[in-house]
């Protein structure tokens, strides 16, 4: 089994998703995205509408990132520029979605602050921090995917 760690133009295959750049970001994206999803689900959902957007983004990105990772891990793709472009496009959309969700969640959390450090407020603060970390991870993955796509 050949390793794909040498060049940026190759798409990962199998365990290569854990060793190649930018694909090494899949697991941290799943971890931090899952934490956002869990923390928002654990809190009192007030107001419901902005929190629903955050839940949609975190669930959508978690499911799509996991599916994308499985496609690469099971060698369900072809080493072509169209897959590299799709990887770039997905991570760009995910970064944009997470940024919008993080800003929304931060605004709702600031509005919810009643001066006490309640359990829900602490969970919301944690969700805000993790959503910004997830945004950063998706953004870095987007830049590195663009570099890989352009090197095809």
From TrEMBL:
Q: What membrane topology term does the record carry?
A: Multi-pass membrane protein
Coiled coil, from the record: none
Q: What terms describe the molecular function in GO for this protein? A: structural constituent of myelin sheath
Q: Which InterPro entries match?
A: MAL, Marvel, MARVEL-CKLF_proteins
Domain of life here? Eukaryota
What does the UniProt entry say about where the protein is found? Membrane
Pfam families annotated for this entry? MARVEL (PF01284)
Does Transmembrane show up as a keyword for this record? yes
Q: What is this protein called?
A: MARVEL domain-containing protein
Q: What is the species listed in this Swiss-Prot or TrEMBL entry?
A: Perca flavescens (American yellow perch)
């Amino acid at each position: 089994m050949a390793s794909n760690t040498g060049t940026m133009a190759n798409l990962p295959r199998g365990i290569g998703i854990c060793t190649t750049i930018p694909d090494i970001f899949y697991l941290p994206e799943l971890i931090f995205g899952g934490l956002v999803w869990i923390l928002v689900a654990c809190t009192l959902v007030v107001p419901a509408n902005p929190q629903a957007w955050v839940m949609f983004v975190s669930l959508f990105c978690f499911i799509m990132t996991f599916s994308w990772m499985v496609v690469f891990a099971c060698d369900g793709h072809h080493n072509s520029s169209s897959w590299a472009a799709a990887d770039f496009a997905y991570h760009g959309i995910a970064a944009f979605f997470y940024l919008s969700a993080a800003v929304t969640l931060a605004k709702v959390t600031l509005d919810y602050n009643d001066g006490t450090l309640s359990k829900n407020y602490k969970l919301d603060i944690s969700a805000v921090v993790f959503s910004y970390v997830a945004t950063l991870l998706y953004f870095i993955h987007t830049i590195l995917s663009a570099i890989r796509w352009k090197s095809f």
